[in-house]
């Protein structure tokens, strides 16, 4: 089978920001849909919820060369580059219609049983449909590391709404990014562009609960790095992130 899967998307009105640039969360929606489309084509069935397993993103790193503009079309390409036990390394790439790379993402995902929420061993078929050899496959990328901080500069609280829940009945990964970006001061958002984001999803959060986002700003001469931590009501860390602005 073909290892890579491609799909074309158009940046519509609701997917742009005040600059008429594609939002990073819109780009993530394109990436997620492309992944799901590939999995549905090859193995999993999300439409009728018949599949017993699902892929969960654990580490997610996105590097942006430029943001597509309103009404611009982008071609998203995805493939799994390695599989090991419960884990897979997935690559996502977005290209403009001239073939120039717009953004690239690296994902460490793991397969879980949807009922037990426990890791599920990847079948031999999964290796085959992604064009990989079980004997020679190993994870090519290590888990992401994050800088720790004790005192935050900003803090915000969010309540989990039903609209934050995705088809797997948990909070969409993209919602975490929306919350995180809300803590970034508007002067940074207006005067810089985010060129990279790193995220580690540690624990799930469910409908009806609250989350607290804590962020610390580190400025240098020509860039801003913001450290983020998402905590649940018990003060446990459930997501870590770093955003880089230039």
TrEMBL record:
Keyword Calcium part of the UniProt annotation: no
Residue ranges constituting the Acyl-ACP thioesterase-like C-terminal domain according to the UniProt record: 150-245
Domain Acyl-ACP thioesterase N-terminal hotdog, first and last residues per copy: 3-128
Signal sequence bounds: none
InterPro entries on file: Acyl-ACP_TE_C, Acyl-ACP_thioesterase_NHD, FATA/B, HotDog_dom_sf
Superkingdom of the organism of origin: Bacteria
This protein's UniProt keywords: Fatty acid biosynthesis, Fatty acid metabolism, Hydrolase, Lipid biosynthesis, Lipid metabolism, Transit peptide
GO molecular function, one term: acyl carrier activity
Pfam families referenced in this protein's UniProt entry, alphabetically: Acyl-ACP_TE, Acyl-ACP_TE_C
Keyword Protease: no
Family of this protein: Belongs to the acyl-ACP thioesterase family.
PANTHER family: OLEOYL-ACYL CARRIER PROTEIN THIOESTERASE 1, CHLOROPLASTIC
Record-given protein name: Acyl-ACP thioesterase
């Amino acid at each position: 089978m073909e290892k890579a899967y491609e799909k074309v998307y158009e940046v519509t009105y609701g997917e742009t920001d005040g600059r008429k640039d594609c939002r990073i969360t819109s780009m993530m929606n394109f990436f997620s849909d492309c992944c799901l489309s590939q999995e549905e084509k090859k193995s999993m069935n999300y439409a009728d919820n018949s599949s017993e397993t699902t892929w969960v993103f654990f580490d997610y790193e996105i590097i942006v060369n430029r943001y597509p503009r309103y009404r611009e079309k982008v071609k998203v390409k995805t493939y799994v580059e390695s599989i090991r036990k419960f884990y897979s390394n997935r690559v996502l790439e977005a290209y403009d219609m001239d073939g120039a790379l717009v953004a690239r993402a690296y994902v460490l995902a793991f397969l879980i049983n949807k009922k037990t929420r426990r890791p599920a061993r990847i079948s031999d078929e999964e290796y085959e449909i992604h064009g990989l050899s079980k004997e020679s496959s190993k994870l090519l990328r290590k888990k992401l590391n994050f800088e720790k901080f004790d005192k935050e500069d900003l803090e915000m609280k969010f309540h989990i709404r039903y609209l934050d829940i995705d088809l797997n009945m948990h909070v969409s990964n993209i919602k975490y990014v929306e919350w995180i970006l809300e803590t970034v001061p508007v002067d940074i958002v207006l005067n810089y562009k985010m060129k990279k984001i790193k995220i580690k999803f540690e624990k799930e959060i469910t409908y009806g609960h609250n989350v607290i986002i804590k962020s610390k700003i580190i400025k240098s001469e020509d860039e801003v790095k913001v450290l983020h931590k998402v905590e649940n009501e018990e003060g446990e860390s459930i997501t870590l992130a770093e955003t880089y602005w230039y």
